Amino acid sequence: MSYDVWIIITGALVGISCGMVGCFLILRKMAMLADAISHTVLLGIVGAFLVSHSLSGVSMLVGALIVGLLTAYFVQLLDQSGVQTDAAIGIVFTSLFALGVILISLFADQVHIDVDHALMGEIAFVPWDTIMLFGFMIPKAVLLLSVVFILNLFLILLFYKELKLCSFDAQMALALGIPVMVIHYLLMGMVSLSTVASFDAVGAILVVAMLIAPGATAYLLTDKLNRMLIISGGVGLMSAIGGYYIAYLLNVSIAGSMAMTAGILFTVTFIFSPTHGIVAKYLNQHKLKNHLEG
């Protein structure tokens, strides 16, 4: 495949995988927890390197998964202790991210881990870091993202009813005997895996955009979860493709352009959504006003 195609595939895998997982965060009103986890996984990556002295995909995934779950646990702990959720997220997010930055400065300043790269990534380099598989040269990032996408899809299909019920009515799920906290941490693990799989290639900014914008866009277009998941994946795919070509035309950051495209798609939907859009609400109010006056 060509250089351009591998970049688009990478962005598409990030958009689809993060978009699907992000739907559940939107429904749970936990969108900003995605921002926290996407930054705190830096600590997991650094910790994994200090323990294993390797930046291999497996060690990074394990480290990020552990820190992602710890982030969710600390936020939940502070929330249950009376701290407001947004404040709890802010405290945990800044503390763990800062600890990761400090550890990089102290022990890994000569290694290919830096804050700027963590935030913005460099998707343009993805096609050059390859591995031989079944006689084909495949970028490592694409292989890792594919595995995480398949795993996320498998878990969503396997625990669809539990995830759906816990997202819409956690109390009813608890009354029905569903292990709500287990499902919660399962979702947090999926967020962590999706984040670290995307982290090196596209950076935290695009990860946050893809975890939130596609799901928020789909939320405005449908009231059914299964359709929301499909639409969210489609928005993530369109963001990757459109963002790449915008970046090509304007000669700007590819990851930044993909994130901007996701924001544009959300803005257009927010204005023109048939049921929840600004235009639709204005027309409905206008019709209601005419009806009352008539």
UniProtKB/TrEMBL annotation:
Transmembrane feature ranges: 6-27, 32-51, 57-75, 87-108, 141-160, 172-195, 201-221, 228-248, 254-279
Any Pfam family: ABC-3
Primary location group: membrane
Family designation: Belongs to the ABC-3 integral membrane protein family.
Membrane topology, as annotated: Multi-pass membrane protein
Signal peptide: none
Record has Calcium as a keyword: no
Compartments, as annotated in UniProt: Cell membrane
This protein's UniProt keywords: Cell membrane, Membrane, Transmembrane, Transmembrane helix, Transport
Protein name from the UniProt record: Metal ABC transporter permease
Keyword Transport annotated: yes
